Amino acid sequence: MAIFADMILHDQALLSIADGQNASDEALLLPVLDPVIGSPSTCQPAVADFAHPRQWFIDTTTVLHDPASSATIPSSKALLLRSSLHSEDDATEHFTLLGDQINDGKAAWTVPLASFGQFSFINQYWEWAEDVLGRSSEKLLEARIYGAVYASLFTYDANLIQSFCEHWCPSTNTLHTPVGELSISLWDLGYIGGLPVYGKFYDEVIPLARDLTGVDENNTYLLPPSCRHLFAAYHRLFRASETHHITAHDWIHFWCRLKSKYSNLSPNDQIEGASRPTGHISVPPKRTKDEEGAFNELGIKAHLREEVYLAAFLSCWLSVFVLPNGKVNQIHPTVFKVASMMARGSTFSLAVPVLASVYHGLKQISSSPTPSQCHVILPMHYIYEWLGNYFDTYLPSTHTQQGVRMVRLADEKNAKHFTALTARKLLRSVDPS
Predict the structure, then answer these.
(1) Where does the Aminotransferase-like plant mobile domain lie (predicted)?
(2) For the whole model, what pTM was predicted?
């Protein structure tokens, strides 16, 4: 049984997790990260001062044209997005591209090229994903992430990334092409990746112990009980880890006791019984005693097991597929709060933080004199599928899951081959539709 407590050390609030059955156990101390949307136990107000600019738009008027009647409607009210860059008299210095830096000898690609956190095979992740999609489809649909989770059943080939970064402007977050500036949008992430655009504010935090264990005036827990079990599992794995970093492999091995079906072999080298996921989802059978192991070890009550199981998977999915950061394939306890709420059907606006992560990562790469060695981690698969959707850079896939467009471009060796020259030519000549 895990014991949670709040501590303060050197003015830093800490969440302490200790084993209640082992008095000599050294407590795990995690720095508390204040939630932007406020702490449920203190009714703390949300942070009012987000990022600048303080006002994202201005009221203006414009002339609307009716193509059906060729009539105009003068002085119609409109909202104009503000930009601190475009309002400057001389902003040309802001729009220097990586390609320009390479041509001037101030930057260069080197070998090998960093993966930038590209999603790849993780032992037993696909088995776990299939099991969750079969067991918890209703909750995933309620949280509006079934398609986004389904997309993680596949890998996505790297394609055009060097040429893409050479034409990406880190100051405006746009791709410079002959037809103008293009960009990855929230709509793209929703349409291509199945990520919800609308929903609760996504906030990665380490909650206070009183938020984890406290109740409101109706005697209802402030946070789902599954959140406590996720931290208890993390504490257990942390104690057993020599590196004090919990990898996705560690997390999956603890929670998912299914038999392995898939391997890291390429499609051409597959052996019988070691194929890649086909995308077919069926209702799993009743769990065996071995598969109940994690629940028994943590003392999870029967009525909570499906919810905790789903929350544990979503913690892994968020950490390695949706919003990877820091180190590749590492579990981040800051996602436990959101994962536990998603497991109850809450919808979070995932497209917004993913787009911010993509913009931030591309800025780091495109601004570096040695982009190949840039150790930034971002969800590259969404960029690859954006390119495939607009620039036809992939062969069609056999997967046709309705509503998840990126799956149609999935699988290894589906990317069309481009040399550096033909990739640059494509981005400079194609009018994406």
Answers:
(1) 145-417
(2) 0.84
